[in-house]
Amino acid sequence: MKIATYNVNGINGRLPVLLRWLEETHPDVVCLQELKAPQEKFPEQAINDAGYNAIWHGQKSWNGVAILARNLEIKELKRNLDGDPEDLHSRYIEAMVNNVIIGCLYLPNGNPAPGPKFEYKLRWFERFTAHAAKLLEYNLPVVLCGDYNVIPTELDAYKPERWVEDALFRPETRLAFQNLMAQGWTDAIRKLYPTETIYTFWDYFRNAYGRDAGLRIDHFLLSPQVSDRLKAAGVDKQVRGWEKTSDHGPVWIELNEA
């Protein structure tokens, strides 16, 4: 079972890139972030024609998350996190696919920090961590993937000293990520590649992709019930070099069948 996560940075504008990547790689499940499209503007027909069914949680101009599946039923479990009824951002969607709970998230960026956006990021992180704890109580295979907007360690940033004051790398953000991980989650990429330089995001500016000046901010966290099934993981870095592409590359894992 191959599961991928991809911040598309605007699904309609990047649709040719998404469809090409799906055709070339055939993941079984895909979690998308930053749809930047209201609910009714999701390109469902094009996704269906590519062989995928989908559920999505759209929002005009910003945010938006979706789960796609190829020849598999998607049973939606949840959209949005508990704890703040006034939070209308479309940042989380969760489903059962092939007996695995898949949580697709787009964690707030939080810049500029400090400030209200950073405070919102940390509050959202707390709500997500509380929900993750509940998921672990089910004693089921759970995969939480998406754009976490977190640089976990210095290894995950090109020239980390430049990111010290950024919301993605501030001590509060890294501590929140560590607290989440301490519940018992496994970082899939780091399980297989504990010391390698691996990036998932390259800015559009200063030829970041050409210089491989990137960040690792898109993550797969695996519950204990699924971490032993991890067979392979990687980043489809070449997609970042395509025409009119997202500033993120697709990240994927492969799981052995239970």
UniProtKB/TrEMBL annotation:
Question: Which residues carry the site feature described as Transition state stabilizer?
Answer: N149
Active site, per annotation = Y106, D147, H248
CDD domains in the record: ExoIII-like_AP-endo
Gene Ontology BP annotations: DNA repair
Keywords assigned by UniProt, alphabetized = Hydrolase, Magnesium, Manganese, Metal-binding
| Cofactor, free-text remark | Probably binds two magnesium or manganese ions per subunit.
Q: Where does Mg(2+) bind?
A: N7, E34, D147, N149, D247, H248
- Marked site: Important for catalytic activity: D218
Molecular functions (GO terms)? DNA binding; double-stranded DNA 3'-5' DNA exonuclease activity; endonuclease activity; metal ion binding
- What are its cofactors? Mg(2+); Mn(2+)
Q: Which domain of life is it from?
A: Bacteria
Interaction with DNA substrate (site feature) positions:
H248
This enzyme's EC code(s): 3.1.11.2
Q: Which residues form the Endonuclease/exonuclease/phosphatase domain?
A: 4-248
Listed NCBIfam families: exoDNase_III, xth
The family line of this record is: Belongs to the DNA repair enzymes AP/ExoA family.
Q: What is this protein called?
A: Exodeoxyribonuclease III
- From what organism does this protein derive? Pedobacter kyonggii
